[in-house]
Design a protein that fits this description.
With 448 residues, the chain is an alpha+beta fold. It is built from 12 helices and 16 strands. The longest helix has 32 residues. The two termini are 32 Å apart.
């Protein structure tokens, strides 16, 4: 089904503020040597500094992008400019048969999709070697157990000697134990340790924040020691945090939740030579959040899977098991819509925090990762030099110091209430997106 994109939704795809500006500057016909469109594709040639123009193309079915320019950003400024130009001036694009360079790209994409479907079918028909699987699982269990025993001693030594000298420790102090966890096949814990390494540089109160994370990690180690006595949901929580992965096909084989999902926020960053993209969805009927995670090598772009911030999708999502499932996979997606409705999310900050508290009661490790907060009516104000989010009841959420778009959010709101989506870490909210008067704005730059 075709989607009527808005300029705000296109700009929400920009990897950073400079790409937004550069893409907007290119959204004019005089910058393009040629422009064309077919049923599912857009293309154009943009004259750059070289002798040959850059060939830019868009597959509107996802959308997906390709450009011959050397930029590592995705989408690049040329793709953004082409898409914006199409949204603002569709008559500038003549309908015709795609040139060969566009046809070759679309054909290659279709072939990759067919091969992926064939591989999926082959995996379904293939009978797994259960004995080999059991052997590999036992070997990993032994590696993880040995690594966590070593980490337990390391944590005890850290607390015993006190936190007074942690700020003077070199990064290698944390990096070495994190590397040991990677060797022990516990990458999730390695990531937690790297996050803890940054806490001593976060300003006043860092000691309490670090001690809280140490306590949470200790709780995770104690839970793993007693994992056989815990519920299946708690076991899933612990194994997921340690770094066990689950087969996508096994997850997708389960029954999901069908709803109309709002793409409420998206951010991307680099981690261990990977690009990670977090896309937050909010169910209209289920009134629950879902996290879609996508990964790619650092040298490769991340597919957005048709999840355009500020749009709606009709889809069935299957959630990973856990005490409070948040991460999900898209099992089936039928349509996309671009209209933006006002009443999305929690009706108050108190309601959002009550939900967060109830989640902590059943899954304390939710504090290790960020919790999604979607508010359909909020203000941002500066009080005594600190930015806060507030609502009609006077409840507040402090804004994270990582947020570099506070003045932008204030200018968008004009001092009035707006819709907002952000990630809550238990102390601060990091806004990812805001919307008002039917317009959606991405307010966070991707960290790559």
């Amino acid at each position: 089904m075709s989607v009527s994109w808005t300029a705000e939704q296109v700009l929400a795809l920009a990897p950073d503020a400079s790409s937004t500006k550069s893409g907007s500057d290119l959204a004019t016909p005089r910058k393009w040597v040629s422009l064309g469109q077919a049923e599912h594709a857009l293309w154009g040639e943009c004259q750059g500094s070289g002798a040959n123009p850059y060939q830019t193309q868009i597959d509107l079915r996802e959308p997906a992008f390709k450009c011959s320019c050397p930029s590592r950003k995705f989408p690049c400024k040329h793709a953004l400019g082409l898409f914006l130009l199409f949204v603002n001036q569709p008559n500038a694009f003549s309908r015709s048969q795609p040139p060969q360079w566009v046809t070759d790209w679309l054909t290659a994409r279709d072939k990759r999709a067919e091969k992926a479907a064939e591989k999926k079918e082959a995996r379904t028909d293939k009978h797994p070697d259960t004995a080999a699987q059991a052997k590999r699982a036992a070997q990993r269990e032994n590696k993880v157990k040995a690594g966590l025993q070593e980490l337990d001693i390391w944590l005890s030594d850290l607390v015993r000697t006190g936190l007074a000298n942690v700020q003077t420790r070199p990064y290698s102090f944390w990096e070495s134990i994190a590397a040991r966890m990677v060797d022990a096949q516990a990458p999730g814990i390695a990531r937690m340790l790297k996050q803890m390494a940054e806490i001593p540089a976060t300003g006043d109160g860092w000691q309490e924040r670090l001690l809280g994370r140490i306590a949470m990690l200790h709780l995770l180690l104690e839970g793993y020691k007693r994992i056989d006595a815990l519920s299946e949901e708690a076991q899933s929580d612990i194994k997921s945090l340690i770094g066990w992965t689950q087969d996508r096909e096994d997850i997708l084989a389960k029954q999901g939740i069908r709803d109309r999902w709002f793409v409420a926020g998206q951010r991307a960053y680099e981690e261990d030579r990977l690009r990670v993209q977090r896309t937050w969805l909010w169910g209209q009927e289920s009134r629950r959040a879902a996290l879609i995670l996508d990964f790619s090598h650092i040298s490769q772009p991340i597919s957005n899977n048709g999840l355009i911030p500020g749009s709606w999708i009709d889809a069935e999502l299957v959630f990973f098991p856990g005490s409070y499932p948040i991460r999900a996979l898209i099992k089936d997606k039928e349509a996309a819509h671009s209209e933006l409705e006002a009443a999305i999310g929690f009706d108050s900050i108190k309601s959002a925090l009550n939900t967060y508290s109830s989640v902590l009661a059943v899954c304390p490790w939710v504090a290790v990762d960020d919790f999604p907060v979607v508010l359909h009516s909020a203000n941002i104000i500066n009080k005594n030099g600190r930015w806060i989010i507030t609502d009609s009841d006077g409840c507040i959420m402090p804004v994270s110091r990582q947020c570099r778009s506070t003045w932008q959010i204030l200018s968008i709101s004009g001092g009035h209430k707006i819709g907002m989506m952000g990630e809550w870490d238990g102390e601060f909210l990091l806004p990812l997106a805001v919307w008002t008067s039917g317009r959606f704005y991405n307010v966070i730059d991707n960290d790559y």
